[in-house]
Specification:
By secondary structure, this protein is α+β, with helices and mostly antiparallel strands. Helices cover about 30% and strands about 30% of the residues. The protein contains 2 helices and 8 strands, in the order αβββββαβββ. It has a 4-stranded mixed sheet, with no helix packed on it. The chain has a 4-stranded antiparallel sheet with strand order 3-2-5-6, with no helix packed on it. It is elongated and about 90 Å long.
């Protein structure tokens, strides 16, 4: 019977505590739920854009790109740009979905070689550049990464597959 007397003492103490602190406990839980709900509403209406980003590669260099990353989010590869091919320019492959945020972007890419370039003595090289990350607006979930000659990189957000640096269907009219 000692166990049940101890159990009754603990039960009575818990009941007295709940009678005294119950309103505070439920009020605190309600405050936490309301604060979280308020934050969700703020983030969905006025907060910064977040969520998954699709990386789209555009290459205008004469060497293949084995892969690249923007702030650690991996992108696809691209073949060497051929000036004689009118269809060889434009959007390349896409990768989905990673989270890219911040004020700066660290772009790392690996250059490969064509057979002729390899025979001429070129080998794989890794390049890196840190640059400002353009401001992302609501609905812009595609980050276009343009690789240009001279180790230049352009970054641009869009809400569709067309880069802000290219003519899209709506820009051709």
């Amino acid at each position: 019977m000692g166990f049940f007397k101890s159990y009754d003492k603990v039960d009575n103490a818990v009941n007295r505590g709940y009678a005294h602190w119950g309103k505070w406990i439920w009020g605190s839980l309600l405050a936490v739920v309301l604060a979280y709900g308020g934050w969700l509403i703020w983030a969905s209406i006025w907060g910064p854009p977040t969520g998954g980003v699709t990386l789209i590669i555009h290459s205008e260099i004469d060497r293949p790109i084995l892969g690249f990353s923007v702030n650690g989010v991996a992108g696809a590869n691209a073949s060497a740009y051929n000036k004689n091919n009118p269809y060889g320019k434009g959007a390349g492959k896409t990768t989905c979905c990673g989270s890219i945020s911040g004020k700066t972007a660290e772009v790392i890419w690996m250059l490969s070689t064509t057979r002729a370039q390899y025979d001429a003595g070129l080998r794989k090289e890794t390049r890196r550049v840190v640059m400002p990350l353009p401001e992302r607006k609501w609905g812009e979930n595609d980050l276009h990464v343009h690789f240009l000659p001279g180790d230049k990189v352009l970054l641009g957000w869009s809400d569709n597959a067309w880069s802000p640096y290219e003519k899209g269907p709506e820009k051709m009219k």
